[in-house]
Amino acid sequence: MAQGWRQFLVLEPVQAEEHEPTSRAGKHPGLTWHDHLVMLLHVAAEIEHGLMVQYLYAAYSLGGPDAATPERQSLIKHWQTSLIKIAKEEMGHLLTVQNILCLLGAPAHFGREDYPWTVPYYPYPFRLEKLTRSSLACYVHAEMPPSITAMLKKYPELSQRFAHFVATDKAEIDRLIKERAPGSVHTVAAIYDDIIGIIGNEKLIPDQAFDEESYVYQASWDDWGRSYGPEARLLDASGSSKEDPHRQREANVIIMRAATRTDALAALKAIGSQGEAIHLAPGRVDELSHFERFLKIFQQFPEDWVPTRDIPDNPTTRKYNKDDAVYIDNNHARDWATLFNYRYRLLLTCLTHSFRLARSAKAGEPNLRGMVMHRVFGEMYNIKTISGILVGLDLHESGTDASGAKFAGPPFEMPYSLMLPESESDAWRLHREFLQGSIEVMELLLETAAGTGRDYLLALKALDHKAIASIDAVIDGQGSKRT
């Protein structure tokens, strides 16, 4: 799934004019500043998408024979909850980036390349892998504030809080990162710094570049973020929290809409800071940053037992001539992985479609956009459920692969395209086609499925038939003629 913009990413900054911001990727002479900004937002979207699925894969990998004691099970459950909540927050970042693209008159972008891949700005090469000390080092690095060393020197109370990080963890994390990604590596904040520098410059991006009428097309927290805000807290007379801040809900999904340059800057700063910087400032410990949450898991990660299942890195239903991808050659597991890919594609297609449907009614009232969004939440559940099934299925018909993996895993394989047809009727037909393809795979699985897996398939198949009937009604209401 090659991206055409990659040829325009220049690794070394070009000489900038006085009014132009410095950038890690210099603007190609064949691009306007608006083009360059949209391109960087596409990169940011792929980074958020990539981080989200890697965190989910790591969460689904937890478990296995070593996690048998109540204490270990409790620790693993805590880690898994934290990873999934961070993934949900990355989803919020991904949606907010789409809102900024919409504000700039650019189409939504939910794509990413299949593994293995890396692009400029990416903090480390993309890889679906079980949770290890090495992968955690990557996650800590990705979310780490670029100025953390200076920050810790400035605030003694922070230095005490992060004493172990300074004394031990940072050197180990740097070493593990270099083993994984030799050469220059970035933090997620790097691309947002560059985007903010460009979008905040009126000489590069004039006011007329922002389409305030796009506001109604954008994702909102009311639609996507319900129940994922920080919990209400008891405050004392001075307004300070009376509770332990570390006991607060860990997920706080940020989804911000934008109608102006100021709105866009505020949104970008909010999602950039959730991963790292602002939360480390004194007095801002009510919500742990992604950096702090990953660092906590890194420090707790055991050396004397394995907290994960025997699943492979980069599982795939396709035969690649690459050592990085592991083919699922157990037919039954591969059929479940194919079903997973259908549901993942349905999720991405629904996300893309939701940005093309204007809000035609108040939030909570029946409308086509609401119908698509309802399917997004349904597919999130399906992805979680099928992942849980896959990590318990044999990877091979017998034995293990060269890496020692025994069980399969969710492949998160990207389709060849996420582009929607121009006609709305044809876009709905695309949804129908994916549902029908999913049903065909389920019918194949039902020939041998038993127990809870069979119950799930029967329930999902029934829901898909209802969804197809609803889509047919939409198509009939729009007329069969393609416009």
Note the topology.
Elements: H1 33-61, H2 70-103, H3 133-143, H4 148-154, H5 156-161, H6 163-180, H7 189-199, H8 221-224, H9 261-275, H10 290-300, E1 315-316, E2 326-327, H11 331-354, H12 368-390, H13 424-445, H14 451-478
Parallel strand pairs: 1-2
Helix pairs in contact: 1-2, 1-7, 2-9, 2-10, 3-6, 3-10, 7-9, 11-12, 11-13, 13-14
Can you put this structure into words, describing what you see?
The chain has 483 residues and is mostly helical. It has 2 domains: 4-300, no CATH class; 315-478, Up-down Bundle (Ferritin). 50% of the residues lie in helices and 1% in strands. It has 14 helices and 2 strands, in the order ααααααααααββαααα. The protein has helices at residues 33-61, 70-103, 133-143, 148-154, 156-161, 163-180, 189-199, 221-224, 261-275, 290-300, 331-354, 368-390, 424-445, 451-478, and strands at residues 315-316, 326-327. It has a two-stranded parallel ribbon. The chain is globular, with a radius of gyration of 23 Å. The model is unreliable at 231-250 (pLDDT under 50).
Task: Indicate how many domains the architecture comprises.
Answer: 2
How many individual β-strands?
A: 2
Distance between the termini: 28 Å
Shape: globular
Output the structural class: mainly alpha
List keywords for this structure.
483 residues; two-stranded parallel sheet; mainly alpha; Ferritin; globular; single chain
Give a quick precis of the structure:
With 483 residues, the protein is mainly alpha-helical. It has 14 helices and two strands; from the N terminus they run ααααααααααββαααα.
